[in-house]
Amino acid sequence: MQFPWQQESWNWIINWIWLLLLLVYMFYGQRLQVSIWVRQIKRALQKLEYMVRKGKEITIKAFREVGNSDTNLVSRINDFLEFFMIEPVDRDPSGIMYKLEHLVNVRDERFERIVAELAPNVSRDKAANLENVLEAIIALNFIYRIVRHFLILGEKTKSYILILQLQMQLPEIMKYANAYFDALKAFVDGKPIGDGAGVLSVTRLLREYGVVSEEEYEEIVKDTVIAQTEIDNRTVIVVRARGPGGTVGKPGEAIRKLFEEKKLKINRIIMIDAGIKLEGEKTGGIMEGVGAAIGGIGVDKYKIEEVATKYKVPLDAIIIKEAIEEAVSPMRREIAEAARKVVERVKRIINERTKPGDVVLVAGIGNTIGIGY
Amino acid sequence: MKRNTILTALVLIVVMSGVFLAFYLLYVKYGFKNLWLFYLLLIILMISFALRAQPKEEMLEVEKYHTVTIIKCERCDYREERKFQRGDYIFKQVGTCKKCFGNLYIDDIYVIPPRKK
């Protein structure tokens, strides 16, 4: 018995089909691959579009909930979505930090003003949270615009490299977008975020030594508070941003003021911040080193380093490890637990590296959303 | 390993086994003259690789978190865990303890990440 495909004619046809396939793959293989990548990017873009749309709805709802019934609210928020800040020229770096600080202040004022206009009757904490909501939706919208831009550009120019780069970075981009989307919801609800780990640690430290109310804190510079306590016969001054609204304060300016204007003789600075963990490391791990543990645009870091160098004060840094997406999304259990462990670490540093009678400055860096006193 | 991956692997194993069985039968019966089956195997492999390059569904899901608020008493060992409510913040005073009439405060707020399927 012989099957039809065993006949010579069948073999001939199959051979030709195979040859054709080979030729198609040879000339159009790359294009096929690109079309698969483009499809992947388009699906991710759809999700980003959904996130932006939903994010806008959440933002509008948040403003409506605090009493804004303005019919122009949607257009005002849409107009603000593409807000940007142009960084100062860096070809002449002298004095760049002060230019940067000025621009950041102007930017912050713009955010405050827009929130004051759209939500005039809210508390300072709620206004700070709404500013954070706007920042998150602007970040999310920026990611969406960038992905869309490179996708369209790649398709228009038929650039294999542009599409390839975008596709390869897609998991990372989506991780950030998811984090900002989560952050947006967290800011509306006032939930603490991973970045607040440093602030949480110093507040726990103060509470352990009897500083438990807001009245015991003094606002030394805008959105930044200090409080004082005694630990093992050392005077401990704690610096953090004011809460429970979402602010990061100006810890650099606060520390400069303590040295330069209040003329305090500080013997040691301990800084606690959330830091980026490396892949493979556990969230909530704690590491210790030296230097100014503070992120951001660099203004605060510059000021802290300046005074620490000028007055020859040692700087200790404690980092709570977390992924970048964990820093902007609601605080995870591991990070909350790490904040408790850091308290013990700070007490040990104070005990081992300072003498009785010394003045120790402990700075808890981060966003204070959802963290009271 | 995810369920979808296991399913895909199983399907691939079954298909491959079928192809190899066919090869074997052809070899035994007809002395492996029909090379087209070999081409078919290559095509299957190409299709399977193309399928593997499809976007992963989980990338398009929006993760859902469950946020909890931990309430503790300043004086006794009272501890309560409840769902986060808007307006909660860490160290907020939330009433008095039923056991010892001490102050209740929010000791922690954190999220429990969703379980990966």
Summarize this structure briefly:
The complex is a heterodimer of chains A (373) and B (117). Helices cover 57% and strands 13% of the residues of chain A.
C-alpha-based Rg of chain B, rounded: 30 Å
Helical stretch tally of chain B: 2
Provide the spatial order of strands within the biggest beta sheet of chain A. Answer: 1-2-3-7-4-6-5
Q: By helix and strand content of chain B, what is the structural category? A: alpha+beta
Globally, the shape of chain A reads elongated
End-to-end separation of chain A in angstroms reads 89 Å
Order of helices and strands of chain B: HHEEEE
Largest interface, counted by CB within 8 Å of the partner chain's CB: A-B, 43 and 31 residues
- Shape summary of chain B: rod-shaped
Task: Bin the helical content of chain A.
Answer: 55-70%
Structural class of chain A: alpha/beta
Q: How many DSSP E strands of chain B?
A: 4
The residue ranges of chain A in which pLDDT falls below 50 over 5 or more consecutive positions are none
Biggest sheet strand line-up of chain B: 2-1-4-3
Which percent range fits the helix content of chain B? 25-40%
Main β-sheet description of chain A: 7 strands, mixed
Number of helices of chain A: 10
Describe this structure in words.
- The complex is a heterodimer of chains A (373) and B (117).
- By secondary structure, chain A is of the alpha/beta class.
- Helices cover 57% and strands 13% of the residues of chain A.
- In chain A, strands 1-2-3-7-4-6-5 form a 7-stranded mixed β-sheet.
- In chain A, helix 1 runs antiparallel to helix 4, helix 4 (124-157) runs antiparallel to helix 5 and helix 6 crosses helix 10 (333-353).
- The relative contact order of chain A is 0.13.
- The mean pLDDT of chain A is 92.
- Chain B has a 4-stranded antiparallel β-sheet, with no helix packed on it.
- Chain B is rod-shaped, with a radius of gyration of 30 Å.
- The A-B interface holds A 5-6, 10-11, 14-15, 18, 21, 36, 39-40, 43-44, 46-47, 51, 170-171, 174, 178, 181-182, 189-192, 200, 203, 207, 212, 243-244, 329-333, 335-336, 370-373 and B 30, 33-36, 39, 43, 50, 53-55, 59-60, 62-63, 65, 67, 84, 86-92, 108-113.
